[in-house]
Design goal:
The complex is a heterotrimer of chains A (193), B (212) and C (209). Chain A contains three helices and nine strands, in the order ααβαββββββββ. Chain A has 193 residues and is an alpha+beta fold. In chain A, strands 3, 6, 7, 8 and 9 form a five-stranded antiparallel beta sheet that branches. A four-stranded antiparallel beta sheet of chain A has the order 1-2-5-4, with no helix packed on it. Chain B is mainly α and 212 residues long. Chain B folds into two domains: 27-90; 112-212, no CATH class. Helix content of chain B is 66%, strand content 0%. In chain B, 47% of the residues are buried. With 209 residues, chain C is mainly α. Chain C is built from nine helices and no strands. In chain C, α5 crosses α8 (176-183). The longest helix of chain C is centred in the N-terminal third of the chain and has 23 residues, at 50-72. The chains are: A alpha+beta (193), B mainly alpha (212), C mainly alpha (209). Chains A and B meet through β1, α3, β2, β5 and β6 of A and α1, α3, α4, α5 and α7 of B.
């Protein structure tokens, strides 16, 4: 049976399709609902068995790139060519005098979606793991939190502390094992600007 | 879901904030007296030999935030102190605090101490914070320390930039996530970077990146 | 339970364990441009990756809500149906075959959930919301009503199977093969339902002009 092109139907369907129904609150509800459900079918993976929790994101400033589990990157086929762009300079960058060789810090934004939290703190090696010095601010959309922090180039470990007591790694970042205290951190590498 | 990077907007004030923050590191107020005293002993030892105290205090605070036992915290602080000392020696002369911290991290995941010295020799005048961070991550993700270190130091000696080292690590990580064996990925990506660099000088103190 | 009776039960909307994977698409190659998610993501979720599961929810929840909203007629029921759907997805991810496509599998669960919610509601309420409206007024001509209201009203008045078929085909843009997986109904029957839905909508909406 051949389906005819019908303008009225097309317009109708388009109008119905156009209703934007994105609902972050529902997403949170869903993720919370599955949080405590047993995963009977789960096969062991290399991911550490952190309890599934709230979504979080950490985005970086242009000069710093997140060496983390960025989903889109991981699912794109990695380019089999060279790691660098064609035409990259083959001569090393002019070395700065090492006294002032520390590159300027790079602003890095950390964001978290935590609908039921009343306080979210960022703790890491860059703020001495202080639970009070770097609090995230609530964003316009309810349940979103963010803060921007200057980080020196190199590797940094961090985590979120929710309501002063819940330790949360960043699900979208790489994890770093903690041989000292047994509680994992998230890790990111900030590139020199 | 927003994966777009943000753009820098006047971070001079943020830089100042960073500097200020580093100087006022304090042990968390919730630390009990016994812990305070034990950590203080380590700090005194560190001060005596001129190691950066802030890093030790940060380690103690990390343990406090993670609700570790006082014993574990003091053990961790002491172990870090030793690593900092080794890192400072290997990264001489005059390593920055960031370099010492990064060196200690590398030692922590199993990078042999002499590698730090080699990296310093490859880049005598540039900060090693990023290359050390890259090496630490590669090893933490399962690459054999000696092999990863060899690759990284060779690239450094041949003139690879921070950007290239960083991209190398990122590509390797993506390859591993897609199912490649870590060493195969590292080999492939290193060759890629190597092919962009000027040819090696005639006499080289560093081993050839290809396996014997 | 025989395969036929399982199919029949599935069509009737009963919850039948183990049937989610049993029905394979007739033609696995989609003809239309795909609205499905990158296949790596459901596979990772199946392997235990919590972040991948969150990605699934983010990617599909809007469409699921839209479908449920039009099937059930109100936000609250729609949200419940969608939440139930994803919880079931989570519970049954282990049964999702790696060689199958995720989108029809998901919509199958969603369509079932919507049917269940409707059945539950039908038992509760004496007045049936759709398909049997009293002769009064919803389509009394009213110049101030905008097109969306007219469309939704017309949609509401379709029999359930036609509404379902119309939404899947024209709003969700799914192939008949996928729709067969989702509803458990033969292709020819589905085409008939879509055609009838379009005919009815056309008449109702043309009256609105």
């Amino acid at each position: 049976m051949h389906e005819e092109h019908d303008e009225l139907i097309e317009r109708t369907a388009e109008a119905l399709r156009d209703r934007r129904m994105a609902n972050p609150r529902l997403v949170s509800r869903i993720l919370t609902a599955v949080e405590h459900r047993p995963r009977r079918w789960w096969r062991a993976m290399t991911w550490p068995s952190a309890p599934f929790s709230l979504t979080a994101t950490a985005a970086l400033a242009a000069a710093g790139l997140l060496l983390g589990f960025m989903t889109r990157q991981a699912t794109e086929a990695p380019s089999r060519g060279l790691a660098t762009q064609p035409g990259a300079q083959a001569i090393p960058l002019l070395p700065a005098a090492r006294g002032s060789a520390e590159p300027a810090p790079v602003p890095v934004q950390f964001t978290l979606r935590a609908v039921r939290a009343s306080q979210v703190a960022l703790v890491g090696d860059f703020n001495g793991w202080s639970p009070t010095s770097t609090l995230l601010e609530p964003g316009q959309e309810p349940g979103t939190w963010s803060v921007t922090v200057p980080l020196s180039a190199g590797r940094h470990v961090y985590a979120f502390l929710v309501d002063g007591r819940t330790w949360m790694t960043d699900p979208r970042a790489q994890k770093a094992r903690d041989l000292d205290f047994g509680r994992e951190n998230s890790v990111l590498i900030v590139q020199a600007p | 879901m927003n994966f777009r990077p943000l753009y820098l907007i006047g971070f001079a004030s943020l830089a100042a904030a960073l500097a200020a923050g580093a100087q006022t590191a304090r042990l968390d107020a919730s630390a009990d007296v016994g812990l305070r005293r034990a950590v203080e002993r380590e700090l005194v030892a560190a001060r005596t030999i001129g190691l950066p105290e802030g890093l030790l205090i940060a380690k103690a605070n990390e343990g406090i935030a993670k609700r570790a036992t006082p014993k574990r915290i003091t053990d961790a602080v002491a172990a870090l102190g030793k690593r900092l000392q080794v890192a400072r020696t290997q990264l001489a002369p005059n390593p920055s605090e960031d370099e010492i911290a990064a060196g200690a991290d590398a030692l922590y995941v199993g990078v042999p101490a002499p590698i730090l010295k080699k990296m310093r020799a490859a880049w005598p005048d540039r900060s090693l914070a990023l290359p050390l961070g890259v090496l630490t991550e590669l090893v933490a993700k399962g690459l054999p320390a000696t092999r990863a270190a060899q690759v990284v130091t060779d690239l450094m000696a041949r003139g690879a930039s921070n950007v290239q080292l960083y991209t190398l690590a990122q590509s390797v990580q993506g390859d591993v996530a897609a199912g490649w064996a870590p060493e195969a990925a590292l080999d492939l990506r290193a060759r890629g970077v190597m092919s962009l660099l000027p040819p090696a000088p005639a006499a080289s103190a560093f081993t050839n990146p290809r396996r014997p | 339970m025989s395969r036929q009776s399982r199919r029949a039960a599935a069509v009737a909307g009963e919850e039948v364990p183990g049937v989610l994977w049993a029905i394979q698409p007739v033609d696995p190659a989609p003809v239309r441009p795909s609205t499905d998610i990158d296949p790596a993501i459901p596979l990772r979720a199946r392997g235990g990756d919590a972040q991948a599961f969150a990605e699934l929810v983010e990617f599909f929840h809007g469409r699921c809500l839209r479908y449920a909203r039009y099937m059930l007629g109100n936000e609250e029921d729609a949200e419940d149906a969608v939440q139930d759907t994803f919880v079931r997805v989570y519970d049954h991810l282990g049964q999702f075959r790696p060689d199958a496509r995720f989108e029809p599998w998901l919509f199958r669960i969603l369509a079932n959930r919507c049917r269940t919610v409707r059945e539950r509601r039908r038992r509760r309420e004496s007045l049936v919301i759709t398909g049997e409206l009293p002769a009064v007024a919803i389509d009394a001509p009213d110049n101030t009503r905008d097109m969306m209201e007219a469309v939704e009203a017309a949609l509401k008045r379709l029999p359930t199977e036609q509404r379902e078929a119309f939404l899947l085909r024209h709003v969700e843009d799914l192939s008949y093969e996928d729709m067969s997986v989702i509803t458990g109904v033969r292709l020819s029957a589905l085409r008939m339902r879509v055609k009838r839905a379009c005919d009815t909508l056309r008449i109702r909406l043309e009256q609105e002009r």
